[in-house]
Amino acid sequence: MWFDKDKLLKAPSGLAGRTTPVVDITRLHRVLGTPLNAEPEGDEVAYFALGCFWGAEKLFWKLPGVYVTAVGYAGGEVPNPTYEEVCSGGTGHAETVKVVYDPAKVSYDDLLKVFFENHDPTQGMRQGNDVGAQYRSAIFTVDDAQRTAALAARDTMQTALTAAGYGRITTEIAPAGEFFFAEGYHQQYLDANPNGYCPVHATGVTCG
Q: How far is CA 139 from CA 21, 170, 177, in A?
């Protein structure tokens, strides 16, 4: 079953999903050695979609203060989708990175800067040659403070992009729903496959 990948799914597609995750969420992060599904007390959580999640995840796990990262699917309509279902365009999910971080060591504003400076947020339902709603730019916020910060960062980046000749930012900023972990072979993919193909489509424009 395949759908129009250039359009964001707005209603259930007939894909049923499943009741259990498609990956063992008790596994450890390949690089950081921390539990994939852990959220230590005092740490905070952020969710970012900026194209192919392989390269995006690596950007965040390298930051000081990040406890764990994981890749998965957010912003869609189908519970515990598989990669193939997401690729079909029938789930509405974006390839998303979950970041658990210590706000005393790295701020949410720092994460937003990494987000906006490491992809092209003006491309709509694609990043480069990766085409479809799963590759859209999105920030899924967990509270009002994150939403306020995300909107401010978007406006700052828009000013800089406009000055550089780029169009309007298409980044979706929406409340975080449920995050579904992607299959095990996607987790920390570029550590397991250092020569894996996943370009970062940065514009070269800085966010503040």
A: 22, 11, 11
Domain boundaries, the chain: 44-192
**Is CATH 3.90.45.10 what the domain over 44-192 is classified as, yes or no?**
no
Exactly one of 52, 87, 198, 207 is catalytic; name it. Answer: 52
| DSSP state at residue 80 | S
In order along its 208 residues, the chain shows pLDDT tens digits of: 555 566 676 656 668 889 888 988 889 999 999 999 999 999 999 999 999 999 999 999 999 999 999 999 999 989 999 999 999 998 999 999 999 999 999 999 999 999 999 999 999 999 999 999 999 999 999 999 999 999 999 999 999 999 999 999 999 999 999 999 999 999 999 999 998 888 889 999 999 8
Backbone angles phi, psi at 118, to 5 degrees: -120, 20
* Edge-to-edge strand ranges of the sheet holding 180-181: 172-175, 137-141, 44-50, 94-101, 66-74, 180-181
Residues facing 74 on adjacent strands? 94
Distance CA 44, CA 88 (A): 32
Secondary element (H or E) of residue 141 = strand 137-141
Any catalytic annotation for residue 87?
A: no
